[in-house]
Amino acid sequence: MAAINKTRCRICHTHNSRIQTLICNGCSTHSHRKCIKITPKEYWMVRHTWLCQDCNTSPLCPDCGMHPVFRDGPCMFCLFPPPEIHGVYSSVESFIIEDVNIQVKLIEYPNLKKGIRLGFLNVNSLRSKLDDLIHLISTLKLHVICLAETKLNSHGTMIPNEFITIPNFNLVRLDRERQGGSMVVYIHDSFGFSELSLENVQVPLEVEYTILRIKPNSCKPLLVIPIYFPPESKKRKRSKECDIKFIERILDEFDTSAESVYLLGDFNINLLDKKDSYTQSLLNVTRSQGMRQMIKKPTREKSLLDHLYVSNFKQVVQSGVVDSGISDHSLIYCVHGKNSPRIPPKKVTVHNSKETDWDEFNKDITEVTFTWPSPPTSGNELVSQFNESFFSTPTQARTQNHKNGKRVLSSLAHPRN
Fold first, then answer.
1. Are 336 and 118 contacting, i.e. CB atoms less than 8 angstroms apart?
2. pLDDT of 223-241, one tens digit each?
């Protein structure tokens, strides 16, 4: 009996990566959806638990009762279980299974501070990574996470929301008509939110973005703008200059000095390349709008392609990059502090003429000896010399600080008795 080529369909014996394919949980053979004659909706319902016809009629493992067996005894999963990994490490651990050395890189997640936690990740297809994403969100305890390149439009079939929902999170989708692309934003259900739209703003080709006003219970609303810019392409007539102008038009629509604006996404502009003209142009545009870029480390290999711009950067108590292992891009995040930083009160010095004893003032002023430059050079020099002689005399009385610290009162002469 010839061995089965597991990369080909077991029914039509052809290999086509563009056709939806099911992988048997028992023997790991492939079968095209059209060959087994099931609908797209049934495909998404059974894709994780599907068994081929041979495995479906075979007895189950007596130990785990989950996987089929073709001989007496336990299944291969019970004979050679995967190693259990506990804890959080930053090193590379090695495991030996059947004389095969397997190296697993364990990821170290940072301890985020208290506040509203926002994140962005170019996930590069969400369909097979939902479980890993749920683990990432629960570990970092994110409140808002924006995903680009989710690719939920597969071969003309739009994946329904039921298959990508996360418990306790609301879902906002931005789908692309053709295959690939698309964006998803998960918002914790304890936050209110509303979607905003811009009129008379032309969107560049293949650019995906949305504008969300997040309304936490503990602080003022936040304006979150996730965005994705595809790479520059002459064939598709895409240019980074149009992308930068589009960013400037978006920021012009909002008062970045009055509200907290978070512009985050995959810009496909390497900020670590200081010689790139697009890098300098983008930074000049964002700085002119009062925005500061918070990410300093590479987010994809040695390039910083994912950016995070913040208007009220003093309220950002933490920001950084996490290598999640889900995608070739790293997760970028920031923590918005619930309380505004304490600004010291401005002190204003005024002269309190009501409490001035003018008799004492006249006596003191007669004792002042004014010296004038000879010959006088300019009017400014005369005024400067007068102020120096006048305020150096005892007529400058003691100052009185108010308890609120908002201003300092200074009398010209001794206070009245």
1. yes
2. 999 999 988 766 666 788 8
Q: What structural domains does the chain harbor? A: 1-81 (3.30.40.10), 116-336 (3.60.10.10), 348-410 (no CATH)
What helix, strand, coil percent values describe the chain, rounded to 5? 20, 25, 55
Greatest CA span in the chain, whole angstroms? 122
Here the tokens at position 167 are: 């418990």
The conformation of residue 415, written as its DSSP 8-state character, comes to B
The residue type at 394: P
| Weakest-pLDDT range from 28-32, 55-59, 94-98, 199-203 | 94-98
**Secondary structure element (H or E) that encloses residue 349, with its range:** strand 348-351
55-97 confidence digits (pLDDT tens): 776 666 666 655 555 555 566 556 555 444 333 333 444 444 4
pLDDT at 26 over 80: no
Rounded Cα–Cα distance for residues 8 and 15 (Å):
5
Residue 155 pLDDT more than 80?
no
DSSP annotation string for 44-78: HHHTTT---HHHHTSPBPTTTSSSB-SSSS--HHH
Report residue 239 as tokens. 């240019």
Tally of CB atoms within 10 A around 45: 14
Q: Which residues contact 27 (CB under 8 A, 6 or more apart)?
A: 52, 54, 55, 68
Sign of CA dihedral 192, 150, 270, 242: negative
30 strand-pairing partners: 9, 23
Three-state SS for 43? helix
In this predicted structure, what is the pLDDT of residue 2?
40
**Hey, CA dihedral for 313, 317, 319, 324, is it positive or negative?**
negative
What is the average per-residue pLDDT within 27-39? 81
Only one residue has tokens 């810009």, namely 267
Separation of alpha carbons 103 and 136, rounded Å: 21
For residue 167, the one-letter residue type is P
User: Residue 17: which region, alpha, beta or left (left: phi > 0; alpha: psi -120 to 50)?
Assistant: alpha
Whether residue 376 has a cis bond before it, omega within 30° of 0: no
Q: Which two tokens stand for residue 256?
A: 């970045």
Please state, in angstroms and rounded to a whole number, the distance separating the CA atoms of residues 311 and 24.
51
